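As described in the Methods, two query proteins were run sequentially through the folding procedure within a single session, without resetting any intermediate state between them. The first query and its resulting structure tokens are shown here.
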Amino acid sequence: MRALNLRFRGKDKVTDVLSFPAESSSNRSSSRAFAGEIAISADIARKNAAHLGHSLADEIRVLALHGILHLAGFDHERDNGQMARKEARLREVLKLPATLTERANRNHRAAAKTRTHRAGPRTA
């Protein structure tokens, strides 16, 4: 996963899920569209499931949902919360544990609170 993340995203770090959208083509011979591929790290999924107290199957479903939303064109890094809202709604319908964007938002808020308490205002 680290090698894939470096090769396709330029980020030299391990990640839990990567999405690879299919190239669009107007010459499809079938009425079925191929959205792309998703790579999920089984090791990270196993660790996350144990840490978060839910099943490995549920964790893989959470990661697959996240990847599918990326294949559908959502981008949580640039969409002002649109993907996070969609992911949260689908999580509830599918009865899944907290989604990746929910976890990231929670971790971001906790880290910001810790930084503020420990070091005062952050400087760039």
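Immediately afterward, the second query was submitted; its sequence and tokens are:
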Amino acid sequence: MKQALYFSASWCMPCKVLKPKMQKLAETINVRFVDVDAESEFTSKFNIRSVPTVVIVENLNEISRYVGNNINTETIKQVIKG
């Protein structure tokens, strides 16, 4: 199963800009919201170096990665559904 992992932090302003878009996207695809501070071990498994980062996975194997708050949520949707 494909899933989007949205890595963010409460102190991150770009994350706050992207979060509403990701919440809207979560209405149509499977999105897991990951707080990098609260889930540091899981974050380390994906080698997250900056936030926001969206990692598309299938069975927790990385397919693609998007970094920054200018992430195109339609692209993410197409990768998940396509």
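The beta strands are 2-8, 31-35, 53-58, 61-67. We note this only descriptively and draw no conclusion about the first query from it.
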